[in-house]
Structure formats: structure tokens, C-alpha cells
Write a structure and sequence with these properties.
Two copies of one chain form a homodimer. Chain A is of the alpha/beta class. Chain A is built from five helices and eleven strands; from the N terminus they run αβββαβαββββαβαββ. Chain A is globular and about 45 Å long. Chains A and B meet through strand 3, helix 2, helix 3 and strand 5 of A and strand 3, helix 2, helix 3 and strand 5 of B. Strand 3 of chain A pairs antiparallel with strand 5 of chain B, so a sheet runs across the interface. Chains A, B: Keywords: Cytoplasm, Glycosyltransferase, Purine salvage, Transferase.
């Protein structure tokens, strides 16, 4: 997606070899107009999948998921990392290991909000090692629902996320795939 | 806003005297169609304010803020409760006391994303004691920007939030104001 790649080149900042800072438009300040174009592109790529629900994870997935959901006319569910005071007792849970924080955390979704008839599109801002996506796939699988696809805004193509998802025979669509960020220079795949 | 009040009556659950569970459409599963109506209503109520930015707080404010921002054509910024690995060093910070969790937490916004020319609309899902809103107002004030208004989806009218905001002479618009929830029965103001 050219618009997104141009935005990454003009506004992203490479910190070290693996960290791409895109907080001016993606995960702290949000460029809602760009999100709409992202939503339309996800729609185009998954339009034959009869999606019934979009699943994401708090916090930075929520904005993308909500804007995208408008193009599918479906509700969003976001998995919780941080337990609220009034979360349902009956939840699907999965364990996600975060390399950035070097520890595991639990994600939870109330059993009420995914059922076996759902065709779920998983949306997230980043794909790196694929652990968050794998946790969300695990939750959909526990609900006996179908994972119809995974839509990612920025994939770090030099990490292992893609393999984890494709090994499960799930359609993965990343709108920008970064091949390398050596010496601060962002190179995209194709 | 009648549509919202009807949704609260049909789908909300009162837990105890002070907790209203609305996770089927507001803060776990998200009814994006309803959020669009909420966004339009915020636009109607603040349309004369020349808003340049919408500020909210992770996680459940983000969806409402993003959908609403479409009607103002402005970016969203969400204050972070949980520090990411690549947050700017230069931030505005405020301390928020959570009654539900009986402890304080810090919220942070990078100094890059609010400047003194901004006219900021603060959006959140709930107003209860007003501590989160006060923290966001504090951050906008630190940036020497203008708080043009506070837009809330559900206000617990029996708690003190409104007074805190109105004492600062800020326009507060809550789309549903709950007067009482005694014995599980939700009564709205007007």
C-alpha cells in the first residue's frame, strides 16, 4: 500500500535494528484519514471472506479495528491485557510472550463475544514475532470459530511472525512489509 | 441521546450500586454503528468549537475517539497508561487516582502531539469521579493548549465528575447521564 509506505518513510523513525517508531500516525497520535484508507484496503483484501467479527488487542489495535469494521459492517472485539473490575468470569485466555518486555502476559476475551459461527478477521498494528497474533488465533480456535484472516498494518518481514501464521494455513495480509532497517534505512519487500 | 439510552437499557447490566457493565457494545465488544451515531452527536454538540485534535486515554476511549474524529477531520491522540518501549522522553504527565482499583497511575502524552495552538476535545467512555478527565485536562493545560470541551458517552450523574469539569468552565457533554442505579434499575436524568 503505497500511501502507507510513503507515510512510514516520511514519518517513521528507526531506533536500533528492530524498533520502528510510528507514534506520529499509528500508535500514539492517530491519522484517522490514513486509517480509513487502511480500512478500505483490508476490505478489498478480505472481501470474499464473509467476515462477521473483527478481533484485535488493546490498545493500539483498537483504532485500526474500529475504522476497518466500518467497511465490513461488523462489531469489533478487543482482547484485554489488563483486567478490568467487571470482566466476565467466563473467558477465553491465551498467554503471549513479549520480546520487547521480556515477559509473558495473558490476553482475555469474554466467551460471550465470539461464537462458533463467527468468521473472524484478526487486525493488529504490527507483526513481528507473531506472538500476539498467535494468542488471538488461539482464542478464536478455543471458541471453535473460524480465523478467516489476519490483517496487519506493518510487518517486520525480518522476524518470524509470517511463518507462524502461514503454517496454520491462514490468509495473512500486511499492508507494508519491511525487509530490513539496517543503519536506519527502511527497505520494503517489493 | 435516545438510541444510546435504549442500548444501555437493553444491553447494560448493573452490578452493585455503582458499576454499569456495558461490555457488549462499549468497552470490550464494540458496536461500531452506534459509535458512528455517537460521533455525529459529539460533532453536533461541539461543532462551533473549531476542534483541532481529539484526546482520549487508552484503552476503551480509543475506538470512540477514532470514530468521532472522522466527523471533525482531526487526528486523535491517546494518553498512555502503560509505558511502551519507545515512548518519547519528553512527555506531559499527570497522576490519576482510580477508585475502582484503589491506586494511582500515571498518564503520559508526548510533547510532540499537543501544541499551544491546539483546541482539544477530550473524549472518554465514562465519567464517574472525573479523575481521568481531570488528568487529561491537566495535560492539555501543561501544553498551553485550549480544552474546548469534554465529550462523554455515559456519565454517572450520582458521582462528582461533572462538578470537577464545570468548575473549570469547560463545556461538558454527556450523551447519557445516569441519575441512579438503585436495585438494578437504571434511571436517566431527563
Amino acid at each position: 500500500m503505497e500511501l502507507l509506505k510513503n507515510k512510514i518513510l516520511s514519518s517513521g523513525k528507526v531506533l536500533g535494528e528492530k524498533v520502528l517508531k510510528v507514534d506520529s500516525f499509528l500508535n500514539h497520535q492517530i491519522d484517522v484519514e490514513l486509517f480509513n484508507e487502511i480500512g478500505k484496503e483490508f476490505r478489498r483484501r478480505f472481501e470474499k471472506k464473509h467476515i462477521t467479527k473483527i478481533l484485535t488487542i488493546e490498545a493500539s489495535g483498537i483504532g485500526i479495528a474500529c475504522i476497518t469494521a466500518q467497511y465490513f459492517n461488523v462489531p469489533v472485539v478487543f482482547a484485554k491485557k489488563h483486567e478490568g473490575s467487571n470482566m466476565d468470569k467466563e473467558t477465553y485466555e491465551s498467554e503471549v510472550f513479549s520480546f520487547t518486555k521480556d515477559k509473558s502476559y495473558k490476553i482475555k476475551v469474554s466467551k460471550k463475544y465470539i461464537d462458533s459461527k463467527d468468521k473472524v478477521l484478526i487486525i493488529d498494528d504490527f507483526l513481528a514475532n507473531g506472538n500476539a497474533a498467535a494468542g488471538l488465533i488461539d482464542i478464536v480456535t478455543q471458541a471453535n470459530a473460524e480465523v478467516s484472516g489476519v490483517g496487519i498494518v506493518i510487518e517486520k518481514g525480518f522476524q518470524d511472525g509470517r511463518k507462524i501464521i502461514e503454517d496454520k494455513k491462514i490468509q495473512l495480509e500486511s499492508l507494508a512489509i519491511i525487509k530490513s532497517m539496517d543503519e536506519g534505512k527502511i527497505i520494503f519487500e517489493n
